[in-house]
């Protein structure tokens, strides 16, 4: 459950205005998804609105998966989708590439687990095996969230000021604690032998309460991420410097080696002019015979 707070200098995809717009949309969509997630867990406290709560959980998980897909697209676009460059940049592979995939897979597993519970609640006592699978999936999803949160917190900077580091940690810590609480709730729910129960009875009070607290932490992290995106775009100069010698540096060097045709033509003409200036001038050739014009005038006088 992470909106990736990348250590890169910027998201290198699309024009500047379009990039900023998509960053705001992405951060706002995550906040909206966490609000739906929180409302879904709260709705499970009442038997009347329990099924509606499951629907809200499913919708929120779809949005969270889309947010992580956007993060993956943004990081791959920063290196022109050259997957081979990941081998030269450890942080790009373990954080910026792996974290969105892990978080997206965790959201998908949690989505399937909630969906299995909803199917059991809707169709009656005809799908007994779905209950055990649902409980296992509700554990597997938060495990991946927790792994992704730990990876996301292990970012290394070349240089960063204190303000930027506070913004980064204000995003990392709520996501890490929220993922841990949801995982603990799922494990306690599984150890309560709830696989013998059915439908909404699979979801115990411990899972719901810890899910509410975890969702609240996700919401806090999403709001802080929104603040971080705004502050990072309003800052003058680079206050979070990317690691040197990584994939983006290699890509920049490759781009500098590929000179556009217009610049190449200008360089060729400049080279020709310099060669013409440095070439030795030919010696003057004397023309034999003939009378100078001045002598002709004196003779006529």
From TrEMBL:
Looking at the keywords, is S-adenosyl-L-methionine present? no
Transmembrane intervals? 24-45, 54-77, 97-121, 133-151, 171-188, 195-224
Is the Amino-acid biosynthesis keyword given for this protein? no
Q: Which UniProt keywords apply?
A: Membrane, Transmembrane, Transmembrane helix
Q: Where is this region: Disordered?
A: 272-301
Instruction: Give the residues annotated as coiled coil.
Output: none
Instruction: Supply the PANTHER family for this chain.
Output: OS02G0257200 PROTEIN
Name under which the protein is recorded: Uncharacterized protein
Give the organism the record lists.
Coptis chinensis
């Amino acid at each position: 459950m992470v909106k990736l707070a990348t250590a890169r200098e910027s998201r290198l995809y699309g024009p500047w205005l379009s990039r900023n717009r998509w960053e705001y949309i992405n951060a706002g969509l995550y906040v909206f998804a966490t609000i739906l997630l929180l409302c879904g867990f709260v709705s499970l406290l009442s038997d009347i609105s329990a099924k509606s709560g499951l629907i809200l959980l499913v919708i929120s998980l779809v949005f969270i998966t889309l947010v992580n897909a956007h993060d993956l697209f943004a990081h791959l676009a920063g290196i022109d989708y050259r997957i081979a460059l990941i081998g030269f940049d450890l942080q790009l592979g373990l954080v910026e590439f792996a974290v969105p995939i892990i978080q997206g897979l965790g959201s998908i597993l949690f989505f399937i687990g909630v969906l299995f519970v909803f199917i059991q609640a809707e169709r009656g006592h005809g799908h007994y095996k779905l209950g055990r699978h649902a409980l296992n999936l509700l554990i597997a999803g938060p495990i991946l969230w927790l792994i992704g949160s730990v990876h996301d917190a292990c970012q290394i900077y070349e240089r960063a000021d204190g303000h930027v580091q506070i913004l980064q940690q204000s995003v990392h810590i709520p996501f890490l604690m929220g993922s841990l609480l949801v995982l603990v709730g799922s494990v306690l729910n599984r150890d309560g032998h709830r696989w013998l129960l059915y439908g909404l009875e699979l979801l115990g009070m411990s899972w719901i309460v810890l899910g509410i607290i975890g969702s609240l932490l996700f919401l806090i992290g999403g709001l802080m991420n929104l603040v971080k995106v705004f502050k990072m775009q309003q800052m003058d100069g680079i206050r979070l410097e990317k690691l040197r010698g990584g994939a983006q540096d290699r890509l920049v060097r490759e781009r500098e080696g590929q000179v556009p045709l217009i610049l190449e033509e200008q360089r060729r003409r400049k080279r020709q002019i310099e060669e013409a200036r440095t070439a030795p001038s030919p010696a003057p050739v004397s023309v034999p015979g003939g009378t100078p014009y001045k002598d002709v005038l004196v003779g006529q006088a």
